[in-house]
Design brief:
With 116 residues, the chain is mainly α. The protein has four helices and no strands.
Protein backbone atom coordinates (compact mmCIF):
# COMPACT_ATOMS: atom_id res chain seq x y z
CA UNK A 1 0.00 0.00 0.00
CA UNK A 2 1.46 3.33 -1.07
CA UNK A 3 1.46 6.60 0.84
CA UNK A 4 -1.21 7.98 -1.53
CA UNK A 5 -3.46 5.03 -0.70
CA UNK A 6 -3.05 5.72 3.02
CA UNK A 7 -3.93 9.38 2.54
CA UNK A 8 -7.03 8.48 0.53
CA UNK A 9 -8.07 5.89 3.12
CA UNK A 10 -7.62 8.41 5.95
CA UNK A 11 -9.62 11.08 4.10
CA UNK A 12 -12.41 8.61 3.39
CA UNK A 13 -12.49 7.33 6.96
CA UNK A 14 -12.63 10.81 8.49
CA UNK A 15 -15.18 12.02 5.91
CA UNK A 16 -17.50 9.08 6.41
CA UNK A 17 -17.19 9.36 10.20
CA UNK A 18 -18.12 13.05 10.10
CA UNK A 19 -21.09 12.32 7.86
CA UNK A 20 -22.23 9.59 10.23
CA UNK A 21 -21.91 11.95 13.20
CA UNK A 22 -23.99 14.52 11.32
CA UNK A 23 -26.73 11.95 10.80
CA UNK A 24 -26.65 10.96 14.48
CA UNK A 25 -26.77 14.63 15.48
CA UNK A 26 -29.82 15.23 13.30
CA UNK A 27 -31.54 12.33 15.00
CA UNK A 28 -30.57 13.10 18.60
CA UNK A 29 -30.61 16.90 18.87
CA UNK A 30 -33.88 18.41 19.98
CA UNK A 31 -34.13 21.95 18.62
CA UNK A 32 -33.79 23.48 15.19
CA UNK A 33 -30.60 25.37 16.00
CA UNK A 34 -28.72 22.29 17.18
CA UNK A 35 -29.95 20.28 14.22
CA UNK A 36 -28.95 23.06 11.87
CA UNK A 37 -25.43 22.91 13.26
CA UNK A 38 -25.30 19.13 12.96
CA UNK A 39 -26.61 19.22 9.41
CA UNK A 40 -24.04 21.70 8.12
CA UNK A 41 -20.66 21.66 9.83
CA UNK A 42 -19.74 17.96 10.04
CA UNK A 43 -21.73 16.98 6.96
CA UNK A 44 -20.09 19.67 4.82
CA UNK A 45 -16.60 18.73 5.95
CA UNK A 46 -17.43 15.04 5.47
CA UNK A 47 -18.57 15.55 1.89
CA UNK A 48 -15.53 17.71 1.15
CA UNK A 49 -13.13 15.08 2.52
CA UNK A 50 -14.79 12.24 0.60
CA UNK A 51 -14.75 14.28 -2.62
CA UNK A 52 -11.10 15.22 -2.02
CA UNK A 53 -10.23 11.56 -1.52
CA UNK A 54 -12.06 10.60 -4.70
CA UNK A 55 -10.42 13.38 -6.68
CA UNK A 56 -6.95 12.15 -5.74
CA UNK A 57 -7.75 8.76 -7.27
CA UNK A 58 -9.18 10.09 -10.54
CA UNK A 59 -7.07 9.58 -13.62
CA UNK A 60 -9.03 11.98 -15.81
CA UNK A 61 -8.52 15.69 -14.98
CA UNK A 62 -12.10 16.43 -16.06
CA UNK A 63 -13.40 14.23 -13.24
CA UNK A 64 -11.18 16.02 -10.76
CA UNK A 65 -12.54 19.39 -11.91
CA UNK A 66 -16.10 18.11 -11.46
CA UNK A 67 -15.32 17.01 -7.92
CA UNK A 68 -13.75 20.39 -7.18
CA UNK A 69 -16.97 22.03 -8.37
CA UNK A 70 -18.88 19.75 -5.98
CA UNK A 71 -16.60 20.84 -3.13
CA UNK A 72 -17.04 24.54 -3.90
CA UNK A 73 -20.80 24.24 -4.21
CA UNK A 74 -21.02 22.28 -0.95
CA UNK A 75 -18.96 24.92 0.85
CA UNK A 76 -21.23 27.67 -0.47
CA UNK A 77 -24.72 26.20 -0.30
CA UNK A 78 -24.74 24.36 3.05
CA UNK A 79 -23.76 27.34 5.25
CA UNK A 80 -26.06 29.70 3.35
CA UNK A 81 -28.95 27.27 3.70
CA UNK A 82 -28.27 26.85 7.42
CA UNK A 83 -28.16 30.61 7.86
CA UNK A 84 -31.53 31.00 6.17
CA UNK A 85 -33.08 28.19 8.21
CA UNK A 86 -31.74 29.73 11.42
CA UNK A 87 -33.00 33.18 10.50
CA UNK A 88 -36.44 31.84 9.59
CA UNK A 89 -36.61 29.88 12.85
CA UNK A 90 -35.59 32.93 14.87
CA UNK A 91 -38.06 35.23 13.16
CA UNK A 92 -40.74 32.57 13.50
CA UNK A 93 -40.33 32.68 17.27
CA UNK A 94 -38.59 29.35 17.84
CA UNK A 95 -37.18 29.39 21.39
CA UNK A 96 -33.40 29.71 21.64
CA UNK A 97 -33.15 27.20 24.45
CA UNK A 98 -30.51 27.65 27.15
CA UNK A 99 -28.94 30.76 25.61
CA UNK A 100 -28.67 33.68 28.00
CA UNK A 101 -27.63 36.39 25.54
CA UNK A 102 -29.67 37.31 22.49
CA UNK A 103 -27.75 39.94 20.55
CA UNK A 104 -30.02 39.60 17.56
CA UNK A 105 -33.10 40.75 19.50
CA UNK A 106 -31.75 44.30 19.82
CA UNK A 107 -30.84 44.44 16.13
CA UNK A 108 -34.28 43.15 15.17
CA UNK A 109 -35.90 45.71 17.47
CA UNK A 110 -33.90 48.55 15.89
CA UNK A 111 -34.74 47.30 12.41
CA UNK A 112 -38.45 47.12 13.21
CA UNK A 113 -38.37 50.59 14.81
CA UNK A 114 -36.79 52.16 11.71
CA UNK A 115 -39.21 50.47 9.38
CA UNK A 116 -42.21 52.15 11.07
Amino acid sequence: MSAADLVVAALLLVGVTLSLLAAVGLNRFTNVYSRMHAATKPATLGVVLVAAAASTRMADPDDTVKLLVVIVLQLITAPVGAHLVGRAAYRGGTPLGPLTLDELAEAEHRRDGQAS
